Amino acid sequence: MNEEKSIGEVLDSIPKGFATVEMIIVDTSSKDRTVEIARSRGAKVISEPRRGYGRAYKTGFENASGEIIVTLDGDSTYPAEKIPELVKMLINEELDFITCDRISMLNEGTMNFQHRVGNAILTLTSNILFGIRIRDSQSGMWIFRREILKKLKLTSDGMPYSEEIKIEAFCRGFSVREVPVEYRARKGEVKLNTWKDGTRNLFFIVLKRLSSV
Questions:
Q1: Were both Cys, which of 1, 29, 30, 144 would link to 34 (CB 3.0–4.6 Å)?
Q2: What pLDDT digit, counting tens, does each position of 31-57 carry?
Q3: Which superfamily, per CATH, for 7-211?
Q4: Residue pLDDT, tens place only, 76-113
């Protein structure tokens, strides 16, 4: 939503020659040139007027045709140029799901103190409640086999979707690996409300754990 300052750069940085690449942008009623720029780069733009981080991903996955799906934000924070390397890792190591860890290689000034604290609390809570081991429960860059989606119970349409898909991948017994990647300063307006979204995420994972007991 409203990522005209970065969407072209993100799409241009995705390597195209290593495989058949389908680029899908899920747009939530952008008022700027996001859609125009994305289409000019060859991306398939899916309109999804319903708000929500998880809702956007669900819509994107429904429209994706590839056997392997890669996700990242449209704000230039994730290293799209590493996609071939990560896809190769998924295949060669016979993994089902790779989630990228932003914390281990965090660039100076790319995540404020509040976000770091919130991320640490949510990650620790996920690890304790679900018996998993992960450094970054809120990362938005994942590489996974499309076939596992039907076996994941993904209920959130909001920000908790990010932690939920990782929890599900671990707890359903899939082969999962967390890989450190560089995290860069975003371009454009910050849409995350640290405390409001963080509190919602925290309540979500506690309720999810209670519902699975």
A1: 30
A2: 999 999 999 999 999 999 999 999 999
A3: Spore Coat Polysaccharide Biosynthesis Protein SpsA; Chain A (3.90.550.10)
A4: 999 999 999 999 999 999 999 999 999 998 877 788 88
